[in-house]
Amino acid sequence: MHCAGFHGQLGCNHDGNEDTPRLVQLGHTTLPDNPTREEEIMAAVVSCGGSHSVSISRRGDLYSWGLHSSGELGLGRHAPTEVFLPRQVILTHRRIVSVTAGESHTLAISENGELWACGRGRRGQLGRAAFHDFWQLQRIDSLRNFRIVSAAAGQSHSMALASDGSLFTWGDGQYGQLGHAALEQIQMIQPLGALAVPIPQKIGELEPSGLSPPKRITAIAAGGNHSMALTVCGELLAFGRNHRGQLGLGEVGNRWRPSRVDLSIGAAVRDSVRAVQVSCGACHTLALILQGTRLKVLSTGDNYWGQLGHGDVDNRLRFVPITAILHAKPVAVQCGAQHSCAVTERGVLYTWGRGDCGQLGGGDEWSRRAPAPLEGFRVVHPDRTLRRTKRCAPKYRAVRRQEAKAPWCLPRCFEAWWGVRGGEVGQPVGM
Fold this sequence. Notes:
- By secondary structure, the chain is mainly β.
- 4% of the residues lie in helices and 38% in strands.
- The longest helix has 8 residues.
- The protein is globular, with a radius of gyration of 20 Å.
């Protein structure tokens, strides 16, 4: 996974890195009730992939920028290979309400619950019953009988959650990240063969009709080659690659079917523990849990760059609380490929992990093994960013506390400000 801005994925009209937050502008549009004035197009959702970025405006228009070598920007074959400023993706007569970027592909959900895909498809991750790239958004017709409410894109696999709780996965399945137990048998028979599923398949074990309502899936996240699912009652299910302990199961070894993660280790017997949000990096995972009445951030997996936030570089095989931010009252978490972020209820943003391209936003290119607050900036809750307010251009110029409020939302916006890539993260949940 890349962590630099040389493909234009920062949207700042250059191919360099940024080590402090910088505002990305989607452009301006004419006010419908006053053609002589303009308003800034405000971003409501942002997602960062391997070398590209995508955003939805408050009007439901989709924008993309960065590397377009496999069609991941959805701009068509005639668009440049590298796009340095946000460009609108045309999808006629449809508003986009959710978007997620994988390593080299993009998944978007329209307001009527249709799922669309574009980009690299050589492992079947576009769900179009094919193994080639698509340069424009294509509807995944096999899901037309389901209303999709959430999607997640990993390195080469994809996930989709339907409104009834059905969970579909497709794409690369060689490590178990699709959650289909039958693939393990195929892998045992043909250990050298590629395991790829080019059409969305429902995970039978999680069929909602066979589960009680508290056990049904309500949120999903995709890592490099691992997957996470969150149930209504706050249980965390993990499957896929686990060579670094990124599944948090206390051992290494891939899991081919959804496995329950024990989050209660170390908790007081009297405290109830439930997961409220999960986010996956390349080989690590963050979870926001509610223990008793207190929210805590836990991490597990690869820690080479200090992305687990424990002040060292030792891997963890189970989820361990990050003590450095216990006092800060975290309310949201997000993973990049090898760095991590957390937001507190006061809007303070903490970052840690790999920082050699400025992705931590602290004004340098140093990696950090423990969470550090991003001084001078604050995060605005998504509820506030989604409220439309007309502003004649050019009003928003900065996100510093003493100036305008940041027009980005969380948890998707972290890497859109700086540092250049966001990792293969899953849909934000629990907000």
